[in-house]
Specification:
The protein is 71% helix and 0% strand. The longest helix is centred in the C-terminal third of the chain and has 42 residues. The protein starts with a helix and ends with a helix.
């Protein structure tokens, strides 16, 4: 049965992965809708790309970037938790049972 720390690490890893996937989706939707919904306008009369008309698309893009950054941070934290648990398990396993030692020369044992 997994320990509570291992479950927490797995939950953080899943949440990070989900945030990265959703962030990528938001960035893609924002970029695609920014390009597809470009208003038809006469020459030199189009609103600037950073005007209020495009706020919806830029907010999707920036939301996606923030979600990607948070997801990567969560995945790194989950990796740190898993490494810490692995180090605790390996030190507890070696301290309780000593490693076997080989006495003698291997070449002498292999001779008939």
């Amino acid at each position: 049965m997994p320990t509570p720390n291992k479950k927490r690490g797995q939950a953080i890893w899943v949440a990070g992965t989900l945030l990265v996937v959703l962030g990528v989706a938001f960035v893609i939707v924002g970029l695609v809708s920014l390009v597809l919904d470009f208003p038809p306008c006469p020459i030199n009369a189009c609103p600037p790309i950073f005007s209020g008309y495009y706020v919806v698309y830029w907010s999707e893009i920036f939301t996606g970037l923030v979600m990607i950054a948070l997801g990567i941070g969560l995945r790194l934290q989950a990796r740190k938790i898993q490494r810490r648990l692995a180090a605790q398990n390996s030190t507890s396993a070696t301290s309780s049972s000593p490693a076997p030692t080989v006495n003698g020369n291997i070449a002498e044992e292999l001779r008939w």
